[in-house]
Amino acid sequence: MTLNTRSLRTLDDIRAFLDGTVPVGFVAPAGDERRQWVAGTLAQFHYFALGRRDKGAVLALVRKVTGFSRAQLTRLVTQWLATRRLDDRRGPPLQPFRRRYTDADVARLVEIDQLHGQLSGPATRKIAERAFRVFGDAAFENLAGISVAHLYNLRASAGYRRQRGRFEPTRSTSILIGERRRPQPDGEPGYLRVDSVHQGDFDGIKGIYIINLVDAVTQFEAVYAVERISETFLVPVLEHAISAFPFLIRGFHTDNGSEYINYRVADLLKKLHIEFTKCRPRRSNDNALVESKNASVVRKHLGYSHIPSRYANAVSAFTRDILSPYLNFHRPCFFPEITVEDKGRQRRRYRYASMETPYQKLKSLPNADTFLRPDASFDQLDQIALAMTDNQAARQLNSERQKLFSMIHKKKAA
User: Fold this and answer.
1) Alpha-carbon dihedral 271, 272, 275, 281, rounded to 10 degrees
2) For residue range 289-300, what is the model confidence (pLDDT) as tens digits?
3) Among 45, 120, 149, 185, which is most buried by a count of CB atoms within 10 Å?
4) In angstroms, rounded to a whole number, what is the distance separating the alpha carbons of residues 79 and 74?
5) Going by C-beta distance under 8 Å and a sequence separation of 6 or more, which residues neighbour residue 114?
6) Burial class (CB in 10 A: 0-12, 13-18, 19+), 346
7) At what angle do helices 70-83 and 33-44 cross, to 10 degrees?
8) Model confidence pLDDT, tens digit, residues 268-327
């Protein structure tokens, strides 16, 4: 509602109205009536020619009638003094910024993290990029071009946390191991780094041991489980593992544990013409590759809890047939770019452009065909790599792992 102030003709009438002694009727406002009334009132009382006291009375009237704030009224009066009119200078309503990454993109990111176990930002981006460019899934088009920094921003958003729920980051392990002789692959695949991971003992019940073999150049990986860490159980697994890699094995590098440093393992490697090297003291970084895989692969997928040794065959079937193919054909890895500085120091840089799956890395090597085993070919390996998308392989991995642990926990409870 606004006031009918036509009866206010003089400054004395204004002062009387402000004092509450002059009756004034009400009429309904319409459109920009308030602004036009202000312009008419200022013109009626020749505001530009009034003294300071009279201007104050006119402004008090306008504020009381219109409800404008002091700042609003100051702007209107300034406009009127300059143009003798009051126009609506407001522009169209501001449109909100268009979101580049929608709720659907956040849902795809949550899906990747749930399937692949919360990989690093670059690895997660590579999964989305492969989903779009290699496997043609249009739902991942936006995420295929996201920056790693903004990917972490999405992970920190309320929408992501609401869908993702609670999760625990990978707990790193630090094991200081030196080498007596460091192998020199010279860019050729087939030089394995080998280590063991124990799933612990509980109430006198021995836990299984995980045998992890990683190629130093391509990061091809083979994971097995054994009941005991002894020659009897270890040698058959090593024979199978050496034949499981698609390329010829040229080197075998371990720590100084007696499970590897023994005559049976040495005879096996000598028979296959494989170089056998072991750790040097106070050189912990030489075997860092397999140690990092113990944390980021074995512990991520098998955890830290006790698994009784009687389940070694079931766990080994899972790691051999499900986990290892996923790691080699569907899980991206960083590969360092090594440059030598003027003083001979080597500097390693891990760039996003050099992130690939182990199989992609193998194919990218010069003369890659010459490294393959006689019974392997890239046509066969391509069929394995493209048989499933990365996300499908991760779903299969999670499903089989759930079945495995359900079976273990069910029998333990019984």
Assistant:
1) -70
2) 888 898 889 999
3) 45
4) 9
5) 164
6) exposed
7) 60
8) 888 888 888 887 777 767 778 888 898 889 999 998 888 998 899 999 999 999 999 999
